[in-house]
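hiii, so i know i said id send this last week but things got crazy w the move. better late than never?? heres the sequnce for the chain we talked about at the cafe, plus the structure i predicted for it. fair warning i was half asleep when i ran it
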Amino acid sequence: MGRLTVTNVSRIFGKKGSAPTKALNNVNLEIKDKEFVCFIGPSGCGKTTLLRIIAGLDTPTTGEILLDGTKITIPDPKRGMVFQEYSLFPWRTVIDNVAFGPQMQGLKKKKAREIAEKYVEFVGLELFKNSYPYELSGGMRQRVAIARALATEPQVLIMDEPFGALDAQTRNMLQYELLEIWDKKNVTILFVTHSVDEAVFLADRIVIMSARPAKIREIINVDLLRPRDRTGPEANILRNRILKLLAEEREK
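okay and structure toks below
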């Protein structure tokens, strides 16, 4: 199961002697198992901070986050994370990068490699399993990062602008591939993006964050059948609604 409950989460940063910065302000959110949720909001509003807390990489100043009723306090293989910068080990081949997570879970090298083989094939990179990251395109590197996150069999896949650095064609291709992965693996996906088009194309729900300190401005249900028409009238109506909300936040 991958059901998340975010309750009264705030996060304040600041060193002794300096003015504190409030990144999150009393965020409350329920995320259903196997749901695809996109987060969008002004730059620097706290979207990444919220995802880092859900991943266990940061702690809230107040409030708590539960995964299936258990409080999140530290990183855990149940929550895989994919970053924009790929964060692959340059000295490891594709197969060894993907095997890293299972090895850290205590599996023997042979078993970890068997799991890695499965996920490298799953993302269509079996012909490049012995390549190093520098030998791959940006889109291929991001597929490796996704495979590595999936190799620990997470309940929740957390993605922080994973396609933001890619060209438009590669980005669109990986969006389709991610939806196929989501459908096959039945994993909950939390996805931060600055692209309204991307959010409308991918999400079951879109969480609109306010300017810092971030709180939830609005949650929009995306009741469009998949595969979605990026330029269809219903998508355009949603897109314009979200753009209007974001513009109002910038004007504050």
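btw Strands lie at 4-13, 21-31, 36-40, 62-67, 70-71, 79-82, 156-160, 188-192, 205-209, 216-221. thought thatd interest u
miss u guys!!
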